[in-house]
Amino acid sequence: MMMTELDKLTAAVDAADWKTICALQDIPVLGARVVHSVHGDIAVFRNAEDEVFALQDRCAHKAGPLSQGIVHGRQVTCPLHGWKFELASGEAVAPDIGCTRAFDVTVADGQVRLKV
């Protein structure tokens, strides 16, 4: 199947939106790495299964640094007051209410890429 000019342009724009952040091994297991961006600080997490997630590095409760929280399964616990957030969505875990922004992140060839 041949790509049209519009398909080529769309693919180029999509590729430009993804930024290589670091190697997967540069993020500690059950830890995070902080990326500074125009959107504010973004915490990129790695869990025990080598899944990678990215959230705004700001708790919805009292703006605590989620990157310094405890990663467990597919959640992170804020270090300030113990609120838990789903890593995939940024949603607070009940009974807490709120969310923090989630960003698209992927791993390709051992490199972590963030969509900004």
Structure described in brief:
The protein has one helix at residues 5-17; strands at residues 18-23, 31-37, 40-46, 52-56, 70-72, 75-77, 84-86, 102-103, 105-108, 111-115. The chain has 116 residues and is mainly beta.
Structural account:
With 116 residues, the chain is mainly β. The chain has one helix at 5-17; strands at residues 18-23, 31-37, 40-46, 52-56, 70-72, 75-77, 84-86, 102-103, 105-108, 111-115. A four-stranded antiparallel sheet has the order 2-3-4-8, with no helix packed on it. Strand 9 and strand 10 form a beta hairpin. The chain is globular and about 40 Å long.
Radius of gyration: 16 Å
Q: Looking at the chains present, what oligomeric state does this protein adopt?
A: single chain
End-to-end distance: 30 Å
How large is the count of helical segments? 1
Poorly predicted runs are 6-13
| Average pLDDT metric | 90
Largest sheet: 4 strands, antiparallel
Give me the secondary-structure category. mainly beta
| Overall morphology | globular
Q: How are the strands of the biggest sheet laid out side by side?
A: 2-3-4-8
**SS elements, strand count:** 10
The helicity comes to 10-25%
Proportion of β residues? 35-45%
Order of helices and strands: HEEEEEEEEEE
